[in-house]
Queue: 4 jobs
Job 1
Amino acid sequence: QVQLVESGGGSVQAGGSLKLSCAASGYILSSCGMGWYRQAPGKERELVSWISSDGSTKYVDSVKGRFTISQDNAKNTVYLQMNSLKTEDTAVYYCAADFRTSPGEWCLVEAWRQTNRLDAWGQGTLVTVSS
């Protein structure tokens, strides 16, 4: 069973920066992609960013130019560098992943859309941005 452990959340003033990390453990043949979602109080969960195994990335419009996703494939770890944070970035951030965990398994197409089929979710880390 694959597990994801997040770290790096916390409190910061608007304009500040934080870096989130998410490390995967368990039996993983290969990574198809990993990403970050967030859920603010009273709002639905939304995709923040996704990075596929080939390095291609996807960002929600509200974070483009401020957040950068990266990965270390050898460590099955994904990072989210968050700069110029705004109060509206306050949320619980969740890491999620699509992995190949058995021979013959295929990667999901547009995995970030298929949240109910992702292999693992982290426990969430709170990011609080104050004015």
Job 2
Amino acid sequence: EVQLVESGGGLVQAGGSLRLSCQASGFTFDDYTIGWFRQAPGKEREGVSCIGHSAYTPFYADSVKGRYTIFKDNAKNTVYLQMDSLSPEDTAVYYCAADLILNPIRLCTVEPGYLLDYWGRGTQVTVSS
């Protein structure tokens, strides 16, 4: 059974940090590009950060560049998203997704109607002011 399980969300004050984890199982982790997406109420889904094969540079949305860091542990089939200097504008449900798209830029900027291979159920991140 394919699973992507997010964890690490929660409530944090502005300026604080959180680290999200995306644990993958049921598919060949190394073959897939993994991305973090977020969606806030009333807003469109946003590709936050994506990571793939080491030949590709990880992608960061402009809104998080310099504050978020994505990295993965292939031995643990896990992708992490370190989020620093959080602001209330970062409040959203964060989802991880996996797809055979090779380029992290392509994954993170994929059009909303494109059906990615796998999705997690999401984890809530709330940043208080």
Job 3
Amino acid sequence: VQLQASGGGMVHTGGSLRLSCSASGFNLDNYGIGWFRRVPGKEREWVSCISSDGSTFYTDSVKGRFTASRDHAENTVYLQMNSLKTEDTAVYHCALYMGAYYSGSYFYSRCLASADFGSWGQGTLVTVSS
């Protein structure tokens, strides 16, 4: 399975975008999803995770501004991004969590480590200009 992130674009600082993550022909319901971003020349950065039961986790720099959610009927996971900053400019990817789920804290630790994620697809570019 390959996940597809979409919804990127160009906005000014303070603007909003909503990213979507979908997988054709694959049910995302029972899987955690991670959002990551990469700036050219820099390492990939973990942004957010949402577990299969809807628990959400965020890196400090986006807390209070980004919100992950999932729509089971649409088989889609979203990342609502508000109050965007120029430093949010990056290619955003979503990925499928393929590891074990013992608890929310364990899942969070795997998100922090960007571990046990796969099914990476093409990302979507978010550009925030001042």
Job 4
Amino acid sequence: QARLVDSGGGQVQPGGSLRLSCAASGFTLDDYAIGWFRQAPGKQRELVANISSGGDTNYSDSVKGRFTIVRDNAKNTIYLYMDTLKPEDTAVYYCKTTLDRDYWGQGTQVTVSS
């Protein structure tokens, strides 16, 4: 059965960095597009970055130049490298892919504050 497990969140000061991981099981991740989403309190879930099966990447304007999505096929894992973090990046981050249906990770909390 397909499954995604998010990890790597935490609390960091403004300007800091984090690396989120999305580990896939039950399917080969590089056959599918994967997206990272986030949801802040009181706001709708939004797409932050995605990577196609061919390796093409896209980023929201709010994170472009600061976040990088990377696929590690050997580990069947997607990473989101987040640099120059801002308080407005605070949210629960989720990865998602679509096979026969949408599969979501359980989410990992990122808090950016001093």
